[in-house]
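DM from R.C. (forwarded with permission)

"hey, sorry to bug you on a friday — could you get me a structure for this? deadline for the figure draft is monday and I only need the backbone to look sensible"
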Amino acid sequence: MLFTDWTGLCGLALVWMLLVLRVYMSRREHSKPLLVVAAAFCVVMLPVAGLSLAGWLRGMVGDLSITSVLLLATALYTRLRQAAVFTPVVLWNARERHSLLMFLSVCALLLYPFALGIGPLDPYRSGFGSMAFIVLLAALAFWAVLRNRILLPLAIALALLAWSVDWYESSNIWDYLIDAPLAMYALAAMLKLLWINVRRGKRA
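My reply, with the result:
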């Protein structure tokens, strides 16, 4: 198995591992969640008739972006940590999550409508090593650091690092920053937040 295939499958395995852990921790009594997660990883990566559960999901959505892998990995860590200390664990506060979701929402609105042929622009082309695009991302990450944000610059840095070493088969930076499921999640989260703010404004 190629390195790119292995890492792509591992990213999709995180989805199954989180799902299994969520179901397992919904029980009143649970022990050894790390063992359950390790077993789930082995099961979803084990090929049956030439295709594993991770491979089946990969065939549907493709490789997840580095940003998605980062969010899934941190979500898995917080759930395991919560199971160990028996108290809620928050790794990223609301400001951190809001900054990243806002960035991803803007990326989704810039990328996917034009990729579907709406308008003459093609932002996806800028992901093939455009120096201006890389500088823009670096400037955004630096601005976020100055505003005491960690999650957004971390996601950008990891995506650029993975792209620079050809972590995936794709040679486009966009594929390391965002994917379709993450784009839909970010847009849905921002719309939900907007709706909550509108309702609060009406009540006030």
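R.C.: lifesaver. The chain has a mean pLDDT of 89.
me: no worries. The radius of gyration is 19 Å.
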